[in-house]
Amino acid sequence: MLNIAFIAHDRKKEEIVNFVIAYEHVFVGNTLYSTGTTGQRIMENTKLSIHRFLSGPLGGDQQIGALIAQNEMDLVIFLRDPLMAQPHEPDITALLRLCDVHGIPVATNVATAEILVRALDRGDFGWRELVDLHRPRLGV
């Protein structure tokens, strides 16, 4: 069982809902998290249960980032709108940076999300053990 987060900018919410509907069978049995409205829209259109944080601009991105920093997140699907400036861009950058620092796969578009979810569906997601073996220990 993995911890998976869903985030989508406003103009990408329909796209993430359709994506999750298409792969609902893969997400069942995992622990799912999301920013507020994205999670609500997904739950309204699927049978999935999602722990919803605040909306992204109100701190939801940072709440998911806290799980990443505590090594409690395995995969992030964050459908970003690259053509629209976001008022909370520093939070978005911080979230993506945390994914890089902690070796967490993050998909920022449907093409990449599909590759990651298909790997998850095949059971080909053993990267977590490899990342933990090679992660530098702080304070050592």
UniProtKB/TrEMBL annotation:
Gene encoding the protein: mgsA
An annotated Gene Ontology molecular function: methylglyoxal synthase activity
Residues noted as binding substrate in the record, renumbered to the chain: 9, 13, 35-38, 55-56, 88
Residue ranges of domain MGS-like in the record: 1-140
Protein name per Swiss-Prot or TrEMBL: Methylglyoxal synthase
Catalytic reactions of this protein: dihydroxyacetone phosphate = methylglyoxal + phosphate
Active site: 61 (proton donor/acceptor)
Pfam families: MGS
Function description: Catalyzes the formation of methylglyoxal from dihydroxyacetone phosphate.
HAMAP family for the chain: Methylglyoxal_synth (MF_00549)
Keyword match Lyase: yes
Gene3D superfamilies associated with the record: Methylglyoxal synthase-like domain
PANTHER family: METHYLGLYOXAL SYNTHASE
Homology family: Belongs to the methylglyoxal synthase family.
EC number, UniProt record: 4.2.3.3
EC supergroup of this enzyme: lyase
Keyword Lyase: yes
Keywords tagged on the record: Lyase
